[in-house]
Amino acid sequence: MDAPDPGIASEARLRSVMFPVFQLRPQASVTRMPIAGFAESTGASGTEELSVQFSYTLWRYPDDHSDPRNEVELDERTRRAIEEEPPWGRPAWLAEQARLFRYPMLWEAVRTAWHASPDHERHSLAQQLVDHTDHVLSNSFREQLGLPAGPATSDEWKARGTAVSGSAIIVDGEERTAVHIDTDPFVYAVGFRVDAHVVCTAVLPRDSLPYLDLSLTTWGRP
User: Which of 51, 101, 146, 207 is the most buried (most CB within 10 A)?
Assistant: First the structure.
């Protein structure tokens, strides 16, 4: 019951990041999950790569979060895990986190990635958009893709670099040059280069798009 809220540490780490981090524009149809994801790679000279991922709860009927039409269909085992209080209890932050599993999640939807020494090919905007797309597909759409448990034995499901084409996106109220993948049946992906070291990409389920404004804003900006 006295386990510390990891959201507090997550927000503190966000404030310490040395590059701008981007998020979906605040809007009624989404709530950012309270714990951001971080991926870091270090070498002899220190941090070589760092990325920040934001996940969101999607509200199809944002005027009333208690509207049952906002909920996803759950199997009985998952529903019991959410509703049944364990004998040892659970802190309020964990109970709230469990409650959010009733609703659609935009898992790791927005990623901001920094590379100390970007590789021209491996860290190109197009390649990072493909990598983020594959990451979301392999973790959120395994059943739809017919992927087995464990490592996938085929890469036919993966996004292709040839699918990346020019686009635009609104960032902090201004239009920015971008690239997107608009050919995958399950997700839509878009990204833009922030500077020589930083790229932001967003990968979203296609069925969530009617509810979303795909504009981005800098996290922490007033």
Answer: 51
Token pair for residue 114? 């920094």
List, in order, residues 6 or more apart from 115 with CB less than 8 Å away: 48, 49, 123, 197
Contacts of 181 (CB under 8 A, 6+ apart): 129, 130, 133, 159, 163, 164, 165, 187, 188, 189, 190
Cross-strand pairs, 198: 114
Cα 17 from Cα 220, distance rounded (Å): 11
C-alpha–C-alpha distance, residues 39 and 31, integer Å: 22
Cβ atoms within 10 Å, residue 113: 23
Residue 112: what pLDDT? 98
Residue corresponding to tokens 């493909």: 130
Q: Give residue-wise pLDDT tens across range 150-204.
A: 776 678 899 999 999 999 999 999 999 999 999 999 999 999 999 999 999 999 9
Give the whole-angstrom CA distance, residue 209 versus residue 211.
5
- HSE-up of residue 12 (Cα within 13 Å, Cβ side): 5
Name the residue type at position 220: G
Written as one letter, the residue type at 62 is P
